[in-house]
Amino acid sequence: MPRLLGVDIPNDRPTVVSLTYLYGVGPKTARELCHNAGVDPQVRARDLQEDELGRIAALLDRDYAVEGQLRRQLAQNIARLRDIGC
């Protein structure tokens, strides 16, 4: 089972669908990731090579706020709004 950013993505689904299991990645972002990383979106996630997973992980770290970073950001925004009494 491929692992990206500490999350296991499903083996039996196409890569574009498997990427949506990451918090903060929707269908449009998954398609963009596949395109920018040069990965075929219809290949099964179990068939991805290590270099392809590495390219996707690098793009996620560099260009997108996902998983832990996004959760922290949302929690901070909610706390800020509570503090100002919104």
Question: Order of strands across the widest beta sheet?
Answer: 1-2
Number of strands: 2
Biggest β-sheet strands, sense, barrel: 2 strands, antiparallel
Outline type: elongated
CA-atom Rg in angstroms: 15 Å
Residue share in helix: 40-55%
**Mean pLDDT rating:** 93
Decide which structural class fits the backbone: mainly alpha
Strand content: under 5%
Task: Write up what this structure looks like.
It is a single chain. Helix 2 crosses helix 3. With 86 residues, the protein is mainly α. 53% of the residues lie in helices and 5% in strands. The N and C termini lie far apart (43 Å).
Quick summary of this structure?
The protein is mainly alpha-helical and 86 residues long. The chain has helices at 15-18, 27-37, 50-63, 67-83; strands at 3-4, 7-8. Helix 2 (27-37) packs across helix 3 (50-63).
Please describe the structure with a list of short key phrases separated by commas or semicolons.
86 residues, mainly alpha, 53% helix
How are the SSEs ordered, and which strands pair?
Layout: E1 3-4, E2 7-8, H1 15-18, H2 27-37, H3 50-63, H4 67-83
Antiparallel strand pairs: 1-2
